[in-house]
Design brief:
Blueprint: E1 12-15, E2 20-23, E3 26-28, H1 31-38, H2 42-58, H3 60-68, H4 74-79, H5 81-106, H6 117-129, E4 133-143, E5 148-157, E6 167-172, H7 180-189, E7 193-195, E8 201-203, E9 209-215, E10 234-238, H8 243-261, H9 263-267
Parallel strand pairs: 6-9
Antiparallel strand pairs: 1-2, 2-3, 4-5, 4-7, 5-6, 7-8, 9-10
Helix pairs in contact: 1-8, 5-6, 7-8
């Protein structure tokens, strides 16, 4: 009687439902998940409280209605406001990324929703100003050695940046850009491989520098509609300008990865309460 052994699964796969990666058949943590779990974000605490306070001030009638409804948990409704706004911003960011990919790859994009037109116009201006030539866009990448995966936004070249050598550019649509994006782009740049549309692995190109492109909406009148500042549209910020800086950022990423990986170990550090047995004195 012969038995067949199942061949090991090789390669990197990504499941959109749940946003999960698997590497060689095993779950592998995403770069953004590592950074979210490994780097403290004290500003989020202030932002969450401020968001609820602003909502209460701006919607007095709705707040009073919620307070008087027996079928609504008033505290739960208010505490859920930051998560709701975060999710809405995430939907916008994903849509802008998709449009930006199409625009950079083809030079044009059709059927842009009105609320996203300002982002697309600002990003198109950025591509033209910097004469960006995309080499790879929105490709999954991974490292077996350090066990992580992710999807970078763009590797491209520009005659105005780093003598035309390949650079990594990450797109952000958030209100601000943060230093941890340097850790994110370093992880992508120093990953071991990326996969093409057919799932084939290729070594990562040699990246000489990393940048973050802050994409903000610019309206038809040339005014930044979201922030009310100069009509920049998209602003490019440098992160790592050479391999030495990139490796330094990567070391910070690995530290964050270790902090994230040991979460359960830290939770288990505190043991059961210590008790002292009371004994009666000898007669």
């Amino acid at each position: 009687m012969s038995t067949k052994t199942k061949a090991p699964v090789k390669g990197l796969t990504f499941t959109h439902n749940g946003h999960r990666y698997k590497l060689d058949g095993l779950p592998v943590t995403g770069v953004t998940t590592i950074l979210n779990g490994g780097i403290p974000k004290p500003a989020l605490i202030y932002w969450a409280g401020k968001t609820v306070a602003e909502y209460v001030e701006a919607n007095p009638a709705e707040i009073e209605s919620l307070r008087n409804r027996a079928d609504v948990d008033f505290v739960r409704e208010l505490s859920g406001i930051p998560a709701k706004l975060r999710d809405e911003a995430g939907v916008t960011g994903t849509a802008v990324h998709d449009l930006a990919e199409t625009l950079a790859a083809t030079g044009t994009v059709d059927d842009v929703p009105e609320e996203l037109a300002g982002y697309v116009e600002g990003y198109a201006d950025f591509l033209d100003r910097f004469q960006i030539t995309p080499l790879l866009m929105e490709r999954p990448c991974a490292s077996r050695k350090d066990w992580f995966a992710g999807k970078f936004d763009m590797i491209g070249t520009s005659p105005l940046l780093n003598d035309g050598a390949p650079v990594m550019v990450d797109l952000k649509t958030s209100k601000y850009v943060y230093g941890e994006t340097g850790l994110q782009t370093a992880a992508y740049s120093l990953a071991e491989f990326y996969i093409d549309e057919d799932g084939n692995e290729h070594p990562m190109p040699e990246i000489v520098a990393t940048y973050v492109a802050h994409v903000t909406p610019m309206d038809r009148d040339g005014v930044n509609a979201r922030y009310g500042v100069a009509p920049l549209g998209t602003t490019l910020y440098p992160l790592a300008q050479n391999l030495e800086e990139m490796k330094s950022h990567y070391a910070m990423f690995l530290a964050a990865a270790y902090t994230h990986k040991t979460t359960k170990l830290r939770d288990a550090i505190v043991g059961t309460p210590v008790t002292i047995e009371q004994k009666a004195d000898a007669a």
